[in-house]
Amino acid sequence: MKQIFILLFSFWVLSLSSQRIIQPKLVELDLKGVIYKSETSYELKIHENGFALGYNKGEVQTYYRTKFYHLEIGMLKDTREKRQNKNYSFTSLYDSNSFVFGKINNFINVRASLGFKRYLSEKAKRKGLAVGYSYSFGPTIGILKPYYLDLFIREGGAIPEIEIVSESYSEDNADRFLNLNDIYGSSSFFKGFNKISVVPGIQAQVSSHFALGAFDKYVKAIEIGIMMDLYIKKIDILIESDEISNKPYFVKLFISGQLGYRK
Predict the structure, then answer these.
(1) Which residues span the domain enclosing 227?
(2) 180: Cβ–Cβ under 8 A, 6 or more apart, which residues?
(3) How many domains would you assign to the chain?
(4) pLDDT by residue (tens digit) across 66-102?
(5) Residue 56 maps to which CATH number?
(6) Which of 26, 28, 178, 190 lies 20 to 30 A from 138 at CA?
């Protein structure tokens, strides 16, 4: 009986020593964060001819693709504009403003676009940099506002009287408008909005897109690209001459910064 007990005990010890301890496999979770459905951002764009302020509303279709609607308003200048100042001062309250000789219109453009943004890099971590590109196209409206100058009006007599009047360019005052001796300075920018004219056109832009924390809650991005505007007629910014001719199109390099949020 004792021998049988020893034999059974030895068999039980051997069976325990032959068992393996199996550890559960660790599962690595590659969590990237919340999946967002939409994004909203505000944009400041600086280009060769001026600047623009924009608004973007995007629909996140996939992790790498966003469809967006864009609206912007900006100022556009002719690259040949040269600002100067005569530094006149009749009173401390009425100093002369700098002006652009030969300018006849301020040009404001409003652009509305349908666009798409695509990321080319792999899913970046929340604080990583995602690289992609975007393109957009749509209508544009050019707004021409007459450019006003403060001009000297000299009344004849033994003692000439000098008056300063604000005028925009016309055939009747062309001699004074284009005479440096008759120019005191530029008038207020807000003068002439009751005499604006509208020129429709089409526009498009293509850019490289760099997003910091592209899959985070907040939008932080920079775009560098090229934008093109084409209007149905020439945009009269400067008085045309043998050296200067206005054109119906503009091609500009730009850089923009975007800040916003995702939902």
Answers:
(1) 32-82+103-146+191-262
(2) 101
(3) 1
(4) 999 999 999 999 988 988 887 766 554 467 788 999 9
(5) 2.40.160.20
(6) 190
